[in-house]
Specification:
heterodimer, A: about 170 residues, mainly alpha, about 75% helix, B: alpha+beta, five-stranded mixed sheet, three-stranded antiparallel sheet, 15 strands
Chain lengths: ~170, ~300
């Protein structure tokens, strides 16, 4: 194995360890299925690896992988090819404490948002991007990100109020 | 009542945590396997391109030799004389023979319901037509699927769909023969190709209509896609026996974390066979958590792992 290849391998491992779980979570929020999320993230890492000579800076590789995840998720969501559903993982079975119930409600409500609002909210708060960074990733004006985020947060608030009233 | 800032802080708290139920995935190993597969494909393409380049260069050299032999070689031959130059093997006309590339038949079908079988054929000249189908139950079709010929046609690849209804349960072998129509060259019939269909009792709740395994290779993760249909539309559990001793899921345990739902559902799983060989994949579908949604049937598919 050559020196350059060893460097590539180390960069890739670093990228996966740094961004893998976060991108997996982002993809899950966007498509609502862990298997699809895994496929998307793996494809994003493969494409990042294929473009590694253009993405020498670690932040550039991470941003490229994140952008690819969002695009692949939107494409997959548009095709709606998956009919597989998660009935419930062991962590989601009834009997959890209040904190896990609250977190589950948050994710469920997040996935009830329209795709554009969900993407904006996930990028802004889960991924921690600024409005400018999110706008650059989505290739839309900053104002669009602001309005989508605001509408998404308002919709989330309404969903959580409704749940409180039902409870 | 939560306000916007509360929701923002809730979301920000999630930024550094995994989502509930987030599975751990070994992306490093999976990416390594993908990279190895891409490298192998690239080596194959490079070898093919090199072979094509050799053929092109050889053709160019022979043309250059013909030119250096003098202008008389470029003159048209006098009437009544024949050129002594041997014909290039590439100049030989391609036969119009049709070949059947694929027969896509459902793995399982309920007795009395209509099944669709798709036949993909290719010809070098003329339109591909199916001339004979034997459904395996004593019925069949003989003739030609071409309605009219506007004149000699160029070769093409064509997929034709045929429907049939088996009335009794059992295992049937569908045999198809094709040919090239609308061509002036000699067209011999294609070699017969066959596919098997399991016809299950009409009351069977869950059936597997397709098992798709793409290019299975030893020590490389392979994706399998199973399509199942149910009458009830309620969730079903699926167990996959990979044929090498590994079984995907124990159906006796309940509740299962993942199941299929809907009248048509897809299951996608990955598996790695350690050694090349012939393996029989068995797909078992049962009603979720032992509910009684009607009987189920086990589907099988035999694959060759290279």
């Amino acid at each position: 194995m050559g020196e350059a290849e060893t460097d590539d391998r180390a960069d890739t491992v670093r990228l996966i360890r740094l961004h893998g779980p976060r991108l997996q979570r982002l993809a899950y929020v966007l498509v609502g299925d862990w298997q699809d999320a895994e496929d998307i993230v793996l494809e994003a890492f493969t494409r990042t690896w294929a473009h590694r000579f253009r993405l020498r800076a670690p932040e550039a590789a991470g941003a490229y992988a994140r952008r690819t995840v969002v695009r692949l998720a939107w494409r997959m969501k548009g095709s709606a090819r998956s009919a597989r559903v998660v009935v419930g993982t062991p962590a989601e079975l009834p009997g959890g404490d209040g904190d896990s119930d609250r977190r589950l409600d948050l994710y469920r409500n997040l996935m009830d948002l329209p795709p554009d609002q969900r993407t904006a909210v996930a990028l802004r708060f889960l991924e921690g991007l600024t409005e400018t960074e999110a706008a650059a990733l989505l290739r839309c004006p900053v104002g669009t990100v602001k309005s989508r985020t605001a509408r998404g947060l308002e919709r989330l608030r309404q969903l959580m109020v409704t749940e409180d009233e039902d409870a | 009542m939560p306000d916007r800032s509360t929701i923002e802080s809730l979301l920000q708290q999630e930024a550094d945590r995994l989502a509930p139920g987030q599975p751990e995935v070994d992306f490093e190993t999976k990416l390594d396997q993908r990279i190895a597969l891409r490298a192998r494909r690239r080596r194959r393409y490079v070898a093919l391109a090199a072979a094509a380049a050799v053929v092109l260069v050889a053709g160019g050299v022979s043309a250059a030799v013909a030119l250096t032999r003098g202008p008389d070689r470029l003159q048209p031959a006098a009437p009544g004389t024949q050129s002594a130059a041997p014909k290039s093997p590439r100049a030989a006309p391609k036969p119009a023979n049709a070949s059947i590339l694929k027969i896509a038949a459902p793995v399982q079908v309920r007795a009395g319901s209509t099944a669709t079988v798709r036949v993909t054929m290719r010809t070098h000249a003329g339109i591909p037509v199916v001339t004979k189908i034997n459904w395996g139950d004593g019925t069949g079709f003989q003739g030609s699927t071409a309605m009219r010929c506007p004149g000699p046609q160029r070769g093409r690849t064509l997929t034709m769909a045929f429907t049939h209804r088996w009335t009794r349960a059992g295992r049937y072998t569908v045999t198809v023969v094709g040919a090239a129509a609308c061509t002036s060259s000699h067209a011999a019939p294609s070699a017969p190709q066959s596919a098997s269909v399991d016809v299950v009792p009409a009351s069977t709740n869950a059936i597997v209509t397709s098992i798709d395994v793409q290019n299975p290779r030893a020590n490389i993760q392979t994706r399998i896609t199973v399509t199942a249909q149910t009458i009830s539309g309620r969730p079903i559990d699926t167990s996959v026996d990979w044929g090498d001793g590994a079984v995907l899921r124990d159906l006796a345990a309940c509740p299962q974390s993942i199941s299929l739902t809907g009248r048509t559902a897809h299951l996608r799983e990955d598996h790695t066979w350690k050694r090349p060989g012939i393996y029989t994949i068995r797909i078992e579908t049962v009603a979720y958590c032992g509910r009684s949604d009607g009987p189920s049937a086990t589907a099988t598919k035999t694959i060759a792992v290279r």
